[in-house]
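In the current project phase, the collection of sequences with tokenised folds has grown. A representative record is quoted in full directly below:
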Amino acid sequence: MTSCIFNWSGGKDSSLALYHCLNNPELDIKYLVTTVNDAVNRISMHGVREELLIKQAESIGIPLYQVRLPEMPGMREYDETMRTHLQKFRDEGITHSIFGDIFLEDLKKYRDERLAEIGMTGIYPLWKRDTHELIDEFLALGFGTVIACTQAALEKFVGKEITKELIAELPDGVDVCGENGEFHTFAFKGPIFSKPINYKIGEKIFKEYKAPQDANDSCISADAPKISGFWYCDLLLD
């Protein structure tokens, strides 16, 4: 059996990837690993509160392992922090790291190179699958997810649950799984959860970010603007 960590963002792609992994008897998932913004106690990039993340892990039934990061880490700081934690996992005998990535080649290459440095290997259950097929499968399995944050131009979608109708409304050029960073989600029900996570909609706010020069490309693509903004919907435990 392969001993693994699962890189858990709390969103729909993580949920679907985890679903497939839990149905693979060859994989033994030791931890859900999530990077958390230490300044505000929220999931990095997604902006979801730590208490909702904890509820997800409790409902899934896999130990949660938080990697605490500053609000805007540079690549060197990010890499050093992650290497420390990955080495800890490797010392425990964990050999593989699972991701929900779909088609970003540069990101996969980056992950695989960092893992190889300490003798670990990446697993990508959703890799190169059609994103329309993935979102259809996600909904057909009974998962539920809400859009926690969006790029500035997609403001009207933030705080809404993903449905087939919402997917049909997305503008041309927006990936239906948000794989290019157009939006991020919070999964609140589905076959991996023992019970749904009840949430309610809070304040909606816009935040502008200036990318650091050595920004970690797991968050910001090479051709992204130097200054960009996201709409966030604050999700609260209900």
